[in-house]
Amino acid sequence: MNIISRRDAIKGLSIVTGASLVSPNSLFAGSAKAEPLGVALVGLGYYSSDLLAPALQKTKNCYLAGIVTGTHSKIPVWRGKYNIPASNVYNYENFDSIADNPDIDVVYVVLPPSMHKEYVIRAAKAGKHVWCEKPMAVTAEECQAMIDACNENKVKLSIGYRCQHEPNTIAFQKIVEEKQLGKVMHVDCAAGYREDRTNHWKQKREMGGGVIYDMGVYSIQGARLGTGMEPIAVTSAKIWAERPEIYKNGLGEIVEAELEFPNQVKARIKTSFYKQTNFLTIQCENGSIEMEPFSSYSGIKGNSPLGEINFPYRVPNQQVLQMDHDAQCIMDDVPVLVPGEEGLRDIKIVQAILKSADTGMPVFI
157-159 and 129-132: which strand pairing? Predict the structure, then answer.
């Protein structure tokens, strides 16, 4: 399987007390073997506009080379701001002709989840490497089709889990991996914020909406990275809406679930579009790792009996690290840190949570 083990990914990073002794940009440093890669952003909403595009002005291994949008009014704004040539601007109808553009090496799909499968597969067939935002897709079957398409066309697929490239996240994984506080006994994790939009894809089931697909993936990641294991079952789950006029017909605004891992390790997770919450507590035999916040765009930090975990940086450095590292893996032709299989794992768990909440029964994964 095309994946770097967590042990390999976190080797070489020492836990420090107090301020950062390691620059975040040095964690995945390498000497580039080619010119920087050209990236085309597909979908120019908030995440592309406010985070990815600014981050691509700071990356060393890649740069913003093109855009794909269905909103014509955005084109002159983006072209003027980022000096994008007309030949590197596409819409959703002529997207496939990107295959003939040597300026574009990577297509970054930043669309609603229901559209991920189509554009990942189209990008792969165009011979472009693919980065795809989370959640990877709506079903495990869609995820597998995306993985298969990228493998068949010999391009790399990476999922946009920025936190897995982030130094504080790597630091707590190192403690868990090396059992510096003994075995993990239990994990509590929550991720959420107040989502007040009413007509966004996040409120539309058919577009991959509902909190479990968005913020829920962070809590699932917290449980998986915090235990260093994969869950074997969802033992219970509950889904509800405090504002059913917005999250209609059973669409989840709040989700709580319990995951069971090997060796009887349990994780309680919660995710919410109703109120702000962001923490990860990893209870080990000899003390606990407390990360709060654990998945924000900046300010991630924590403590354990071993000392403070705090590698400070400014937004959008997570995205800079993520894209520079993914580009380096393409240039060096080595496995990416967060391949499609990682996104597939989370969507399998999402589907198990939905089934458990619907049936009221445990669901094996």
Answer: parallel
